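Hey,

The postdoc asked me to send both predictions to you directly instead of through the lab channel. I've kept everything plain text so nothing gets mangled by the mail client. Protein one:
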Amino acid sequence: MLLPAGGVPLLSGVLATTGQAAQVVAVVPSLADGETTGGGGGGVGRVVADLAAGLPVADGTVDMVAGYGIHPADPALLVDEARRVLAPCGQVVLAVELGHLRHHGCDLPGLTSEEAGQVARALSEAVDAETRHGWEAMHAVMDTGRAGLQSEGVDVIHLTKRLDHRDVEAYLHTATPAAPAPLAAVRSSLDDRAARRYRAACHRAVDVHGALRLRTPMV
């Protein structure tokens, strides 16, 4: 398994509940966040590896290479390493949230339809069209073809997250690699008044609907 930072103990805990022994090979930026390679895990073996140094797995010994939320600096290296360690008929399964394409999954109380449309356009236009998402680069590598690998295409699903008041504030003020923070985007495209009304509407959605719902595409 290839995971972002913080994913090793989470996945190990999940695997431990299944009673299945497994080895997790995780690619993480560093161990500076207190993540360790030792510990129990209910029989789950763990190896923390640096992709640039090569995965510590013998050729042709893995049934599946699965990754979630990873954005490798060198997609070609990841794909080639996956090809190396995969057994015959093995699979590569990668899932990535396209956070810069998230959108509201509920109405925004207090905003007129015109205001809501202006906000949606402001958020959409704030996305840097020149910034290629990590997944796009990886998919381009897969499309070029690799000996022994055959692409089976891309499935798109939508994840719905329910935000409370605290989560709303984090969402409004958090930028992504492809876009500024939503509140900043609305303020820049429209004005301070529009940004204040947007923020108030997001919090009002929590009061009215029980949560502000955000839908995020995942491939």
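Protein two:
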Amino acid sequence: MILSAGIVIVRKETKEWKYLFLRAYKNWDFPKGIVESLEGPMETAKREVKEETGITDLNFRWGDIFKETLPYSGGNKIARYYIAETTQSTVTFSINLELGRPEHHEYRWLSYDEIKELSPKRLLTTIEWANSLIYQDTSGDGKWNEPLHG
């Protein structure tokens, strides 16, 4: 089984959390990459975020918890996602030396509803997990609530 590791990156915008989503061709995903030998999954996730987005300001305010996807790509891969907050809004695509071009074509900061619309089915449980961590809906009125931790 091949393990990839990535990060669900969120940013507070006014009174709403936005999720960073990247597009490569027709595929939307969070920044992630294959865990290399002599590297732990968290190290991989941070490295991939820096390489793919230029974001270095990551606050793991929810700790080092993670959510793994079900096997995909013919049952040979699993992706592990951590969650972190950033204050950086600008994404910089660097050139992937193996490809000779950036790995991704587009990025968007999306609301919870917007990201669910673009997301592949395999990421929906990860998005639900992340959303449950960052919102504490105790009022039941659907209005802004503070993050669970912080």
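Summary for protein two, as requested: Helices lie at 41-53, 112-118, 124-134.

Thanks,
C.
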